[in-house]
Amino acid sequence: MLVEDCNLGSNQLQSLPSRACLFTFFNEHNQGKFVLDIIVRISLTSLMSYPGEKDLQELTCHQLLHALVRRRNICFHLLSLDSWRNLANAFANDKSLFLLNGVSQRSLAQTLVLSAYGMRSSDASNQYVKDLMAHMTSSLVDLANNSDLKNLAQQPDIIMLVCCVLERLRGAASATEPRTQRAIYEMGLSVMNPVLRLLEVYKHESAVIYLLLKFVVDWVDGQISYLEAHETAGVVNFCMSLLQIYSSHNIGKISLSLSSTLLNEAKTEKYKDLRALLQLLSHLCSKDMKIPEIYGLGEADSVGLADSDN
């Protein structure tokens, strides 16, 4: 038996000969892809068949699946597996995976987007991400365009859906790589107006507001270094609109009439928002750009933002 020959115990490699034995088994005997398939199938089963097992799902999303996408050669093999395609399809279309908690949603989205690195070309990688996230972006766009949005948005199942989608968008945004940057940029571009609309509608829902802000923070952080001047201008204008809406509705305000316990909780929520907004401004200011390239000023008026002392 393999386990006996390799001297494995308690699921750990205990010696260098054990490692060599495993490498030989996976490489020379071409069993690596077979093992990958088993891991993915087990992962999919744990996510879809045990909805109440939070610890199991977090272990699957944060460690097991995430460990598989650290190397491009493994991603290449993953993308050829029917089991991986089934996982991606379930993520995009199966409502049962919407029951995962927010952190697991974000981690799973990040893992699936990172796997696109195994595609043979940048075009293929970008198309993979577009197909993967298309349902997420369209659901936000459709919701924001609904004529009865104010009433619809307050329904508990809609709030849960919005939070789930935002966590997935955050996960995708945090997985930005050169090969997938364009698809993730277009993903964010497509939900700019819905984000602003939802920011207004959910002004009293602190959890949703925070997720909206964090998605924008993560998206800007991943994109800002890749953008051309005109694209940067669009992102800056969007962020300024977001800040204006946040300010005009006095989102995050604290009422002095609250009890001390509620007051402390409100302060905590407000400071989370403020940290997110400061992160957003920091990412915007990290862009090495010139003002005239964005706002059309003359050369005589140009100021290098990266060289400014203020």
From TrEMBL:
**Biological process according to GO:** protein export from nucleus
Signal peptide span: none
Write down the InterPro entries for this protein, in alphabetical order.
XPO4/7-like
Asked whether the keyword Acetylation is assigned, the reply is: no
Task: Give the UniProt subcellular location, in the record's own words.
Answer: Cytoplasm; Nucleus
> Which family does the entry's similarity section mention?
Belongs to the exportin family.
What is the protein named? Uncharacterized protein
What organism is the protein native to? Brassica cretica
